[in-house]
Design a protein that fits this description.
By secondary structure, this protein is of the alpha+beta class. The chain has 9 helices and 7 strands; from the N terminus they run H-H-H-H-H-E-H-E-H-E-E-H-E-E-E-H. A 7-stranded mixed beta sheet has the order 2-4-3-1-5-6-7, with helices on both faces. The longest helix has 43 residues.
């Protein structure tokens, strides 16, 4: 019993498309009748030799087929040349080429974006590592899609390049701005000493203080990313998308910041 699967369907479709394409070329060149005659001859050959099993007629037609292919190449050499030329210069192939070229360009742009983000992410990571070692409390909020301008106005305008030493100095215990939040937007430190909304989420452990609640509050109210360094334990935490993750390493902080800021 013959089986007819998905692969056979694809096979038939490809042959049908190929024959239709050849038919269009033959029709344009005025040799449509010859093409139909060739198809009829092939149909008779398949019927007699493959389906019905007439050995004598099948063997004779086999001889004609072996010679006929060479004859067809000679007769239709111009059409074959046009067919191959059209196959190689078809607009569809150009469209496919543009599609893959666009994919590569997007990949290059994403790589450049990640490299650019990495240049300002690392000073933040280094500052958090230093603040963690000295157990200096800090709260850093990074703007993403939603503007944090309303929160920036509650603090002091800084507008400075991102620098690990500057971040450490702002959160130094004797600094007048160390109790508030620092806001980073457009690859710059825009403000410090800012006031953030406080989350009243009951799931927050009581051991976590105001910085953690403020970080979660801004992460619930906006799409921003907030980094917290605990003054009591020196632990580093991150809040984003309404969730708070505590006690992360510097490597994990770098990874999460890169992922969140370039997505």
């Amino acid at each position: 019993m013959l089986s007819f699967g998905f692969k056979d369907v694809i096979d038939v479709l490809l042959v049908a498309i190929l024959l239709f394409w050849i038919y269009k070329l033959m029709k344009q060149s005025g040799t449509k009748n010859i093409f139909i005659g060739v198809l009829a001859f092939i149909g008779v050959w398949l019927l007699t030799s493959e389906i019905i099993g007439m050995r004598l007629i099948g063997s004779l037609l086999d001889k004609f087929m072996s010679i006929g292919l060479l004859v067809l190449v000679i007769i239709f050499q111009e059409q074959i040349r046009r067919f191959l030329d059209e196959l190689g210069s078809n607009k569809r192939w150009k469209g496919i080429s543009k599609f893959f070229r666009r994919k590569l360009e997007n990949r290059d742009e994403q790589a450049l974006e990640m490299e650019r983000a990495h240049r300002w992410i690392m000073p933040i990571v280094y500052a958090c590592m230093s603040l963690s070692r000295s157990r200096t409390g800090a709260l850093i909020v990074i703007e993403r899609g939603m503007s944090l301008n309303a929160y920036e106005k509650t603090g002091d305008v800084i507008d400075a390049a991102i620098n690990s030493r500057l971040i450490e100095n702002i959160f130094f215990k004797n600094s007048p701005l160390h109790d508030g939040a620092m806001i980073i937007a457009h690859d710059r430190i825009t403000a410090a000493g800012c006031i953030l909304p406080v989350s009243h989420d009951a799931s927050i452990p009581r051991s976590l203080g105001l910085r953690h609640r403020s970080a979660l509050g801004v992460a619930q109210a906006t799409d921003a990313v907030a980094i917290i360094v605990s003054e009591e334990t020196g632990g580093i935490s991150i809040a984003s998308k309404g969730e708070l993750i505590t006690h992360i390493s510097s490597t994990e902080l770098e990874s999460r910041l890169t992922q969140l800021t370039v997505e």
